[in-house]
Amino acid sequence: MVIILRPQVNYTILKNILSTIQEAGFTGYQAGKKAIVVHNNDETLQAKLKTLEGVENVVQVKSPYPLTSREFHPENTLIEVGGHVIGGDEPTIMAGPCSIESLENIIEIAEAVKKAGGHVLRGGAFKPRSSPYSFQGHGEEGLKMMALAREKTGLPIISEVMEPEKVALVAEYVDILQIGARNMQNYPLLREVGKSGKPVMLKRGLSATIEEWLMSAEYVLAQDNPNVMLCERGIRTYETATRNTLDLNAVPVVQHLSHLPVIVDPSHGVGKSQYVNAMARAGIAAGATGVIVEIHPDPAKAWSDAAQTIDFDQFNQMVDDVNRIAAAVSPTLSRTTVHA
Fold first, then answer.
1. Which of 1, 33, 95, 143 is the most exposed, fewest CB within 10 Å of its CB?
2. SS (H, E, C) the chain
3. pTM of this prediction exceeds 0.85
4. Domains (range + CATH), the chain
């Protein structure tokens, strides 16, 4: 069950609620300042809790990730960033380079994203690379370059944060904090981005189950941060024809289980540029609320992820295709009538 607290509950009232739960033989876990989670739906305890000062409501939830589930929050979560609503009927287009290379390069790319009708500029300043000898990103200087690109184009920006200690720094510059696949279960990091109050994109781990993914989202939501979006970016399977396997099953499954917006990342999902557009179309057809892709004016010269990066012409075609498919798919069926 989830106990929804009234605003400005003081320590004495909170202690009384937690003591009542404990006396009944259960444990209450505080989820920020607005809720308490109890892993039980005892009806006698529910009735007693509803009479206590400071309790606004008690909601029965069977899910192991209560705040993330549709049982607790039946309506779709909508996240407003830079005047655009993520999770609405219009598909969200996020695009940019894997790694920020130079100010001139990121501004050129930002202008291309804006011209094509994109909504968010992506770019890596802190890069988790498989090899310690690969380019690791420009760090704060890269974030400064992105901020200048935002100033020039008006596009909000998203970039990855890898360490709890760097959350405050990255949050100074970006509009959306990205948690990469390798950090999906970095719980101290998840707590810290939750505390930042910034919108968070949580990418699915390379071998994570859907339940593990949603449990990770719960860590962010439990810090009073409701602005979380999920990103399906491909999982590791036995198949070697592509870099990963973009799990399109996850899109409708997650929409059934959770109220959070689902974005697909076909660039990492397949790892080969010639398949990116097809999988972007498939993701939107499956009901995803947006796509995030890697683009570059000359992909062969991109400093990282060149093989999966598309050029501006391919990006323009993808945006057109995605918008056409979104218009053809009923928003009522794909995004708002899915209930647990």
1. 33
2. CEEEECCCCCHHHHHHHHHHHHHCCCCEEEECCCEEEECCCCHHHHHHHCCCCCEEEEECCCCCCHHHECCCCCCCCCEEECCEEECCCCCEEEEECCECCCHHHHHHHHHHHHHHCCCEEECECCCCCCCCCCCCCCCHHHHHHHHHHHHHHCCCEEEECCCHHHHHHHHHHCCEEEECHHHCCCHHHHHHHHHHCCCEEEECCCCCCHHHHHHHHHHHHCCCCCCEEEEECCECCCCCCCCCECCCCHHHHHHHHECCCEEECHHHHHCCHHHHHHHHHHHHHCCCCEEEEEECCCHHHCCCCHHHCECHHHHHHHHHHHHHHHHHCCHHHHHHCCCC
3. yes
4. 2-60 (3.30.70), 79-336 (3.20.20.70)
